[in-house]
Amino acid sequence: MAFILIIETSTTICSISLSYKNILLKNINFYNLYFQHINILHFFLRKILTICNFEFLFLDAIAFNNGPGSYTSLKLGLATAKGISYALNIPLIYFNFKPALKELYNNLFILIKDKYSQYNILYFEKKRFFNINKYHLFQLIKKNLIKTFFLYTRYDLYLELYNILKLNKIKYYFINTKYFINIVYSKYKNNLFLKEKDKLYIKYNYI
User: Is the pTM of this model over 0.85?
Assistant: First the structure.
């Protein structure tokens, strides 16, 4: 059996998925502007299990995204996942946004630095561009160089970009736990769990 609960809290988007092996059973997302994860995360954890007629005791592992992202949000995700792991005595799995998506997609995706509302790193094929601001991004979009990308950002910055994305018919995706099901299940199969000593000293990959 491999029922895995996956938690994502690195941005203003809170995402939770319940999977069986590499099959998505249910996904819930909450888009907010003010990092309200502490008020909604545990409610959504109970909600997703109730919808699936599932209980915490049936979980075989729990996974969380360790960034990059907001320090406080990552800390909350880790604390929640760690607490469930200890309470149920189940393995704890973590993954990082960049390598997880690079294994799945060869197209462009973008990371956004929340603190300064500045685009931090832009991945285009095998090239990387640092400190990309909104003007540079708009120019790339207008030149039709961007076809698809992952918007790893605060939800309010997405609202700023919405019109130009829609106008240029660009496919865009928010960070979502459903994109990480395969890599989490791969770690589960290969017993790539956080060791007890690592649970105490894991570092937050924040921006």
Answer: no
